[in-house]
Amino acid sequence: MASVSNVSSDDRSQIQRGGKRFNGQHGVDTTLVKEVSWKEKLMGRNVSESSNVISDRDFVIEDDDIFRSSINGIPAIDFSERLRNFLVRDMETTVVVKLLGWSIGYGALHNRISSLWKPSQPFHLMDIENRYFLVRFQCRVDYDLALIQGPWIVFGHYLTVQP
Description:
31% of the residues lie in helices and 28% in strands. The protein has helices at residues 9-17, 38-43, 47-51, 81-89, 106-117, 140-148, and strands at residues 20-23, 26-29, 66-71, 74-79, 94-99, 124-128, 132-136, 152-154, 157-162. A five-stranded antiparallel β-sheet has the order 6-7-5-9-8, covered by helices on one side. A hairpin with a 2-residue loop joins strand 8 (152-154) and strand 9 (157-162). The protein starts with 8 loop residues before the first helix and ends with a strand.
C-alpha cells in the first residue's frame, strides 16, 4: 500500500468521504457503528431493526401539537393528531392483565405468562397500581394469541386479559 505522502489529495478526500482514513501505511476504518442501548438489549431488539425505527428520543413536540383552552373556567388540553398517533402507537399491542383473587409479584407473573403464552418475541411487563399489569408485545401475533385464546389460569386463579 502506498504511504500517505504518495496519495494524491483527490484520493485522500475520497478515502475520507468513504469513511476510511489513512493512518501511516494502513487504512483504518472509522465508520461509526451504532451501539446497542441497554433498552434494546433488554427488549431483545437488534441494531438493524432499531436503527430503522424512529425512536422516542427523535420525536419533538412542537408548539402546535398541544392546544390549551378553558371551558367554563376548567382547563382543557387537546392534542394534535400527530401527537395523538404517537401516544397511541405503543399501546396498539398492549393488554391489561389482572390475576383475580390473588396478589402476584412481577417476577412470578412474568415467568407464568412466558410459559403460558410462549411469545415468539420478548414482551415488556409493567406493574401498575391495584394489582394490574400492562403487557406490551412486539409482535401482533403474540398480542392476538394472548387476547383471543384462553381462559388463562395462573396458580388456580383466572388471569383477565383486556385490550
